[in-house]
Amino acid sequence: MCATGLLDEKGKVLSNKHLGRNLYLLTVESPQLAKLMEPGQFVHTLIPGMEGHILRRPFSVYATDAEAGTMDILYQVVGFGTQHLSTLAEGVEISNIGPIGHGWKAPEGCKRALVVCGGVGAAPLFMHTSEMVAAGIQVDVVLGAQTAEAMVCADRYEQVLGSPAVLATDDGSLGYAGFCTVPAKELLDTNSYDYVCCCGPEPLMKIVSRMAAEAGVHCQISMEKRMACGVGACLSCVIDTPEGKKRCCVDGPVFNAEEVIW
Question: C-alpha angle 176/181/185, rounded to 5°?
Answer without folding.
Answer: 100
